[in-house]
Amino acid sequence: MAAVKAARLLSRRAHVLPGQLHVTELFFEVPKNHARPEAGTLTLFGRSVRKHERPIVPLSAADLASKEKLPYLVYLEGGPGFGNREPQNHALTQVALSRGYQVLYLDYRGTGLSTPVNADSVVAQGGAQKQADYLKLFRATSIVRDLEAVRLCLTEDFDEDKKTWSIFGQSFGGFVGLTYLSKYPKGLREAFLTGGLAPVKRTADEVYTATYKKLTERNAAYYKKYPEDIPAVRRLTDYIHWLHLEGTGIPLPSGGNLTVPLFLTLGLAFGGHGGLDEVHSLILRLATDLGQFRKFTRASLAAFESHISFDTHPIYAILHEAIYNTKQKGAPASDWAAYRVGRALKPFAWLDDAPAFLQSTPATDPLYFSGEMVYPFHFDGTTGPELARLKEAADILAATDEWDEDLYDEAQLRRNNVPVYAVSYVDDMYVDFELARETAALVRGIKVRETNGWYHDAVRSKSEEVFAALFKLRDDCVD
């Protein structure tokens, strides 16, 4: 693996926040393409957090320097495509500080404040092929090079035993963590992964074949809990389809258009704690609109859009299937795998022809929602104007069957000597449990807590329990 040059620190601003948090806002410069440093640079943004202490006896200069050089724990966010929350709003902050770390929340390239990807920035690269080539630079292989470059920068004057750092990867952040373990294990002290044991050996088709099974179970659970939503969802889809036939459609506040297929993507929420209830609340709200006003109100449509945020986080949509692509010889292109796999399944045949599906399905049958899947229609303007501008680039990426580099080094994972602690969820709708088990068996020395008591977002919804489980694995507690 090629060596990484340290990032260049552009600016550093420190603040004290409520809760006795000393937060430093950091901007770094890294190569846009680490293999070709002459091709330009990107800016990364992060926040470093440690305890703000006001001791009775002022600290000496040496003690202050020591506080600034506590070992780092770096949080790797899920997605792909999302920046970090502010440290005071993150459950990990206080837990990590109490255990002697300082925490770094670094926005991945293209997200948050790290040279964010949007339609304007992508289109500015040139034609569709150049846009696709630019977007390829935002995969996990580039992210871990950024992380390693930032580590070298921040720990340059640290003692040798503190130069390595720990990582905490949630969901896609766990995928990034496995890439880090594959590429730069010498930079890591330990790794914590929650819902992030990536299907290292599997193609996108195999991944979606597995996740549609769990999605089907979650739909069944939804209608078992809310049987009144069987006719309610049908009324809503009939209304949406009727307006589509009338030619008026249902414009969304952000500029998209509410179609039956877009409406049926609400199942994305089913994979988290309280997700069934969130969807029911929205269905109730929309159905109440029809009963009272014979149309959907702007407030309700805005509430719908809050569940489908792809247009404001384009990396999530455009690179979602690319997180499963490798350069292995013979590995197929993703070719809109979620769409191809789903439309062949009876409950999701609405993907192929929604009007025909509605006409042929008895009104008493439940309509099933899709989950964490991205489809070609997300780029046809229904989701919003941003993704529509990236449609050609998205099609090119979907057709790509060769990548510059593999995401994972299986041989390195088999000989791994970095301590890895993971929580894996039996009922995970996003990261299939059996495929996660397959990956766990590949990583030498990993310790895994498997549970059917939590869902994919447990690091937020059940944070205290999840952190306790992870640190129990690390501390090697024996009951």
Account of the 3D structure:
The chain is an alpha/beta fold and 479 residues long. It has two domains: 8-202 and 406-475, Alpha/Beta hydrolase fold, catalytic domain (Rossmann fold, 3-Layer(aba) Sandwich), CATH 3.40.50; 204-399, no CATH class. It is 40% helix and 14% strand. It contains 20 helices and nine strands. It has helices at 61-68, 91-98, 119-123, 128-135, 140-154, 172-183, 204-225, 229-246, 260-263, 275-293, 298-307, 314-318, 337-343, 354-360, 385-388, 391-399, 410-414, 433-442, 458-461, 463-475; strands at 8-17, 21-31, 41-51, 72-76, 102-106, 165-170, 188-194, 420-425, 447-451. Helix 7 crosses helix 13 (337-343). The two termini are 41 Å apart. This is Alpha/Beta hydrolase protein. Belongs to the peptidase S33 family. Pfam families: Abhydrolase_1.
Shape: globular
In total, the number of strands is 9
CATH architecture of the largest domain: 3-Layer(aba) Sandwich
Strand order of the largest sheet: 1-2-3-5-4-6-7-8-9
Family: Belongs to the peptidase S33 family.
GO molecular function: peptidase activity
InterPro entries: AB_hydrolase_1, AB_hydrolase_fold, Peptidase_S33, Serine_prot/Carboxylest_S33
Keywords: Hydrolase
SSE diagram, text form:
Elements: E1 8-17, E2 21-31, E3 41-51, H1 61-68, E4 72-76, H2 91-98, E5 102-106, H3 119-123, H4 128-135, H5 140-154, E6 165-170, H6 172-183, E7 188-194, H7 204-225, H8 229-246, H9 260-263, H10 275-293, H11 298-307, H12 314-318, H13 337-343, H14 354-360, H15 385-388, H16 391-399, H17 410-414, E8 420-425, H18 433-442, E9 447-451, H19 458-461, H20 463-475
Parallel strand pairs: 4-5, 4-6, 6-7, 7-8, 8-9
Antiparallel strand pairs: 1-2, 2-3, 3-5
Helix pairs in contact: 4-16, 5-6, 7-13, 8-10, 10-11
Family: Belongs to the peptidase S33 family.
GO molecular function, one term: peptidase activity
Protein name: Alpha/Beta hydrolase protein
